[in-house]
Amino acid sequence: MRITNDSDLQEVLNQTNEGDVLELAEGTYRIKCKIHTPGLTIRGAGADCTKIVWDDYAKKIASDGKEFNTFRTWTVAVVSDHVTIEDLSIINDAGHPELKGQEVALTVYGDDFHMNRCRLTSTQDTIFLGPLPDDLIERYNGFLTDDLRADKYCRQYFRDCLIEGTVDFIFGCGDALFENCEIRSVYDARDVGYAAAPAHALSQTEGIHFLRCRFTAEDSVSDASIYLARPWRDYGLAVFEDCTYGPHIHPLGFDKWNDTDRDRTARFYEDPPVAGRVPWVKHI
Asked: What is the largest CA-CA distance in the chain?
């Protein structure tokens, strides 16, 4: 099925069946959409040509009179398994996170998710890798819909993608592989940033894995102002394997998250080892 405008996209998504393939024509689709159909493939005309864009943010007041909160700000939410998205951009263009708070572009709450040759663009919290930590699943009962707080195992694969953001812009509890991706830090008025914020349970052994990724930055990002990761919860797990780093990456590499003691439980690995990193980073 070939889609050419916003209204058609929403209508067709509501009517898709497992195994369907949606072709999105070149253009900008200004729409907030949720993908419920398992086994669905959505294919654009290229990341520079096909764009899905929305602008919700954490401090915005929703129709229920409450703030959106991080986990309702997504532009696209995937809440089914075996979904593939390729050759398009997903953007949250709210901007000014120092004033508006978190601005999610993509939420993935599904298993066996694949994204190829895509661009994910926002600022703080660009991509959420579901599921939520256990404490938030309980806290948001009645606030988030059940499909956004399910206790499920989620594996996610990103290949040849560009992910842009400022603070904790790749975060969550999903076991996710980023292969041959560009992880680009963009300017933030706070002049400090973190690429990843994992929150895995101790029982998880995969975590967020960056394999042969390039960590780059806009020219406006200061040198040594970005950390590779900080643990959003105890036991957060992140692996950096055969990656390359620009001068924007802080020599210490990793942060323990404010005044916590999560450096004692964080499971951060880097290979090959880099001189000057925090003493609690491990080697593969």
From this structure: 54
Least Cα distance to 132 among 232, 57, 263 occurs for: 232
Torsion sign over Cα 105, 69, 254, 137 = negative
Confidence of residue 5 (pLDDT cuts 50, 70, 90): confident
Structural domains in the chain?
A: 2-165 (2.160.20.10)
Q: Within 10 Å of residue 190's Cβ, how many Cβ atoms?
A: 12
Instruction: Please list the alpha-helical segments (H only) found in the chain.
Output: 6-13, 97-100, 134-139
Angle (nearest 5°) at CA 200 between 198 and 201 = 160
Q: Residue-wise over 61-82: b if at least 16 C-beta within 10 A, else e?
A: eeeeeeebbbbbbbbbbbbbbb
pLDDT tens figures, 38-57? 999 999 999 999 999 999 99
Residue 257 CB contacts under 8 Å (≥ 6 apart), including other chains: 230, 231, 232
Beta carbons of 71 and 128 less than 8 angstroms apart = yes
Q: What is the pLDDT of residue 189?
A: 86
Closest CA to 181 of 234, 249, 119: 119
| Type of residue numbered 248 | H
**pTM value > 0.90:** yes
Q: Which two tokens stand for residue 35?
A: 């993908």
Residues pairing with 194 in the sheet: 167, 227
Separation in Å, CA 161 to CA 24, 88, 89, 184, 212: 18, 10, 10, 11, 12
